[in-house]
Amino acid sequence: MIHRFPYAWAGGLDTEALAPCRLYGPRAGEAAGGAVPDLRQSLLRPIGSPPLPEMLRAASARRVLILADDLTRPTPQPSMLAPLLELIGEAGIAERDVTVLVATGLHRPMSGGEIGVRFGPRVAGRVRVVNHDAYDEAALVSLGVSPDGTPILVNRLVREHDFTLSVGCIEPHRVAGFSGGAKMVQPGICGERITSALHWRAWLMEGGEIYGKADNPVRRGMEEIADRAGLRFIVNVVLDGGGRPYGYFCGDPRAAFRAGCEASRSLCAAEVERADIVVADSHPFDIDLWQACKAVSVAELVVRPGGTVVLVTPCPEGLSRHAPRIRETGYLPASEVVRRVECGEIRDLATACHLMSLGRILERGELLVVSPGLAPDLCREVGLRSAAGVQEAVRTARARLGREADVAILGKACAMIPCVQGEEGGKG
Predict the structure, then answer these.
(1) Predicted confidence (pLDDT) per residue in 10-57, tens digit
(2) pTM recorded for the entire structure
(3) d(CA 153, CA 323)
(4) Is 278 exposed, middle or buried (0-12, 13-18, 19+ CB in 10 A)?
(5) Which domains does the chain have, with CATH numbers?
């Protein structure tokens, strides 16, 4: 069998020629009865809350803030925002009083052209769309401090609107357990310091303690911040293996989110065996290495100690907007990243979190990168090993591990929750 990667330049791998080799991936899934889920009905019959129009009227809302994810996420924003805006209009709120705040987190801002493509003319051409900037403290307001004393700053637009809701996607996530829900506030529209502090807490934990778990310490911290910010309602989608809506989960930010997590887990959980070599593509999180590292975190849950992870990703924007900070240290084993943070050699926690995402593999084994967007010279500069192609990467790994080293291919790794056979796999 030939496994084809989602990138034409990557070609494929012959699983029989690579034997022993196993192929894993998320289930395709489909909505109940094969029906296309109806977003409008989900908004009118939400989970754990009154229908959205009733909530807007009860709150005497006149200005509505919609938090929406950016181009790094697969959420079908145009098809979700259009019916949402119609319903908001039916509640008596004019389009001029609706703002879409792009919850960029620590990502770069979207350009005007990207906003037009991302949200479509029904949104970008008719309501105000604004990028969040986590580094612009003048655009942030204080919500107090976290238990560790870190200032909690959030985009001031939450104070300038009467009602805040969010539109996003629920899928497995290494830092938050799952994306969606309160994550649209933290990190979506928060200041850099609180975002970095909470993410750092997650990277000091094992992936199995968080990944694919709806309830975890980091998620609880995010939900507390979302409560302070006034998030009242969520509009979340779970996508099937083909990127189509499997179900909409609207309503209370906790109850609807957890219902969506159950649906996501039913699609994403896959029984796997550990392997010496794990090949993972990062689709659709592949604009840069800052995003593509998500696939490495999933592969970490499958690879044997001392084994090799092969990351297959295009990264057209290279390392990320944080490249200068990454170049200051290069990629390091996780223990060295922790040491440098604790002694003050690394002060930028956001970059430290990213270094940890790859550093955990560098600590325990080997990472090989196959990417047209990350030139060999760049990889060497930042302490990464690259390969010209996937087959070359597997040969390189077997040269180190032995000819009989077994291979696991994780197709669409970022949409998987690996459950290793014979090991305890917690439920979300």
Answers:
(1) 999 999 999 999 999 887 666 555 667 999 999 999 999 999 999 999
(2) 0.93
(3) 25
(4) buried
(5) 2-26+273-420 (3.90.226.30), 32-268 (3.40.50.11440)
